[in-house]
Amino acid sequence: MISCSEFIWVYNELFKFLDESGGEAKVIEFWKGISDEFLGNLRAYIEAEGLKGMHRYWSHTLGEEGGRHTMTLYDDMFVIDMHDCPSAKLIHHAGRVEPYPKYCEHCRWLYPPLIEEYGYKVDYYILDCQKGRCRMTVRIPPGASTPNAAS
Amino acid sequence: MASVHKDFHGALSYGLQFVEDNYGREGLDDFLSRLAESVYLPLVDGIRARGLDALHEHLQTIFELEQGEFEMHTQDGVLTLRVHRCPAICHMKEHRYAVAEHFCEHTRIVNEAVCKAAGCRSSVEYDQDAGRCVQRFWKEAP
Questions:
Q1: How far is CA A49 from CA A90, A149, B7, in A?
Q2: What average pLDDT score do residues B3-17 get?
């Protein structure tokens, strides 16, 4: 069994394999598939509580994964500031695998498109992949119909 | 004890199915076999240096970390791991994640690749639906 504790490295190797076999488009197809097929729990959190649900989801997942980050929840905005992503740090600094150059891009394809399906606007910036720094900001556009507006 | 994000099992399962759907069983075998040269190279080096003790420690560590139900023993030079409750299968079933059609094959392929690189042999018998397997490892005759 491949352990969860080894998954980050396996994930990196999978991205490399897909890129070598089918190009970057195949990697993106995989990321979109994960977003569509595998993030049902994030969808459930958003549908139930909107921005607060996102805060709950990432409190759970980032809590399990470790790393250093801050999350800020406003009435109309949710922000994750990742200062030290445990996943990116492992890939770039553990020396166990050759990093997939676009490793951090997976978050851009997994989360913003899914969240925007619910009427939110998402800005996602990779600040420094090797240092594991990124920022995701979710806003409620004026007049948008979102789960927040419904609750 | 370090925490683990068990949803990764579901993501891995999705990834294995994606590889098989796009590149067939041969692609799955190719992808997983390569892991012995990267992700599992420290384990391969450990087995080369210390024999099956290194593999025993590795398996003990991950199955304790994942809270699997298992037993392990070495007899007549054969390391046997009996998994009574696979943490990956159980987590995916509990959370209703799709389990890849040939999910447990990854154990066979990775074990064989690691053992080939480290100079030993392996076998696995599994019941994917039940989340049970028996894995065996032994050194190749010199």
A1: 32, 10, 21
A2: 86
| Tokens coding A120 | 């939110």
- Contact of B34 with chain A, judged by CB distance below 8 Å, is answered with yes
Mean pLDDT of chain B: 94
pLDDT at position B1, please? 39
Any alpha helices (H) in chain A, and if so which ranges? 7-22, 24-38, 40-65, 86-93, 105-110, 112-116, 147-150
**What band does B142 get if pLDDT is binned at 50, 70 and 90?**
low
Give me the CATH code for the B7-139 domain, please. 3.30.1380
Cβ atoms B14, B99 nearer than 8 A? no
**Which fold is adopted by the domain A4-150?**
Muramoyl-pentapeptide Carboxypeptidase; domain 2 (3.30.1380)
Widest CA span of chain B, in angstroms?
46
Note the ipTM here: 0.93
Choose among A41, A24, A20: nearest CA to A106. A24
DSSP single-letter state for residue A76 = S
This prediction has a pTM of 0.92
User: What residues of chain B lie within 8 A of the CB of A86, using their CB?
Assistant: none
Q: What is the pLDDT of residue B130?
A: 96
**A14-B114-B39-B133 Cα dihedral, nearest 10 degrees:** 70
Q: Which residue in B has a C-alpha nearest to residue A64's C-alpha?
A: B5
Q: What is the mean pLDDT of residues A50-75?
A: 92
A13: nearest CB among B6, B35, B66: B35
Contact yes or no for B134/B67 (Cβ under 8 A): no
| Interatomic CA distance for residues A38 and B10, integer angstroms | 8
Report the C-alpha gap between B82 and B134 in whole angstroms: 5
